[in-house]
Amino acid sequence: ELKEIVFIIQSQSNSFHSKRAEDLKRDILKQAADLGEELPAVLLIHEMDGHEGAWTILPLMRDFSVTYGRNSSWIFFCEEDTRIQVVKLLETLGRFDGSKEWFLGKALYDEESTIIHHYAFAENPTVFKFPDFAAGWALSIPLVNKLAKKLKSEPLKSDFTIDLKHEIALYIWQKGEGPHLTPVPEFCTDDVNSYKVDHCATTFSNFLPLCGEPVKKEDVFVAVKTCRKFHGDRIPVVKQTWEREAALIEYYSDYADISIPTIDLGVPNTDRGHCGKTFAILERFLNHSSRRIPWLVIVDDDTLISIFRLRKLLSCYDPNEPVFLGERYGYGLGTGGYSYITGGGGMVFSRIAVQKLLASKCRCYSTDAPDDMVLGMCFSGLGIPITHSPLFHQARPMDYPKGYLSHQIPVSFHKHWNIDPVKVYFTWLAPSTEESLNGKKVGYNREDL
């Protein structure tokens, strides 16, 4: 029965995202009402207790077990852009015995071992399957109860959250003591209008969000962090690829080189962290750029980014809100901790977010502190939420499963290691003629890189 399924939308508190999640909730409840069924529980993760790490899901298992452990059969998770055919979902879950431990989803796997999974299963990474959250995924209540019991006796380690879908699958699998992911063909990420979706219980509206006109070129200020030793090899790549998409761009270095040109911020280069340099960029944006520029993007000199697509994406955000946007990671979220935007994929700030940050007393504890983590800590302390977009990427295309990238129009990738970065840019990120047709994705030729 429908009331035995608890729907959890992996929502976010930013106004654009919370509205999309509310729309999905309304759609699920309308489908339930049209069936004449008792309405199921539909919960939005960002509204669940004040837990900073609620988005990492495992800390919520004990609450799920206590609240739903007796009268429900399934907890079904999905993203705000997942589209659900409730009747087909009921049929699909009905094929599985809800009294057993099930972990269901659309299976992803690594084709080669990757840094974002700490090179797990290096001998044969294809053996380990993990769920594509975009297609929705489900846990049977007996498995939820088991996980809750385990979490009670062994609290989560205070560690990094990098790729949640992989980490949850590892936690459930328990080195072989728990269930593997069972692939469910009815959980799909094809576009809702695709001819392939007749059998699907879920689909995914896979496009680049666009809310009206793209943000104007002159409304995005781009700051590139570099240093003298990379002027010769990394900066030419930026100039050959995405620099022309930016109207306002400055290169910040430890050495003023007029041929680029770079600006010496007076902060000595550090081998890692770069916190001092990043805060100097934030101060400069606030005090030396035009007050009218609403958006700041800070990237590394080996970030590959589409400013063209970013301008479309930013049309969905209100620059009068404090927005801090990019790919979200977490640190110590099992025990408090905080979320942060990982720097390599690009960090996007609304001017008001920068104002609030610099008005606070929160600063680097050392010039080589990790800038992205310090920013996460600061915004967490200010109560300003981090906004996650999966279209930003901390690693290279080859570091992500093909099936995962197949339903994205990516905004960024990062690192030049063992790839031809110019080719990666032109294959994955360069504006194509198709994109100007209503933002839908039309066949790209992305050869394996």
What's a quick, concise take on this entry?
The protein has helices at residues 15-34, 61-68, 86-94, 141-153, 164-173, 235-240, 275-288, 307-314, 351-359, 371-382, 402-405, 421-428, and strands at residues 5-9, 42-44, 74-78, 82-84, 103-105, 107-108, 130-131, 137-140, 160-161, 182-183, 202-204, 220-225, 248-253, 262-264, 295-300, 303-305, 324-326, 328-331, 338-341, 347-350, 387-388, 412-414. The chain has 449 residues and is an alpha/beta fold.
Write the layout of secondary structure elements.
Blueprint: E1 5-9, H1 15-34, E2 42-44, H2 61-68, E3 74-78, E4 82-84, H3 86-94, E5 103-105, E6 107-108, E7 130-131, E8 137-140, H4 141-153, E9 160-161, H5 164-173, E10 182-183, E11 202-204, E12 220-225, H6 235-240, E13 248-253, E14 262-264, H7 275-288, E15 295-300, E16 303-305, H8 307-314, E17 324-326, E18 328-331, E19 338-341, E20 347-350, H9 351-359, H10 371-382, E21 387-388, H11 402-405, E22 412-414, H12 421-428
Parallel strand pairs: 1-2, 1-3, 5-10, 12-13, 12-15, 13-14, 17-21
Antiparallel strand pairs: 3-8, 4-11, 5-8, 6-7, 9-18, 15-20, 16-22, 17-20, 18-19
Helix pairs in contact: 2-4, 7-9
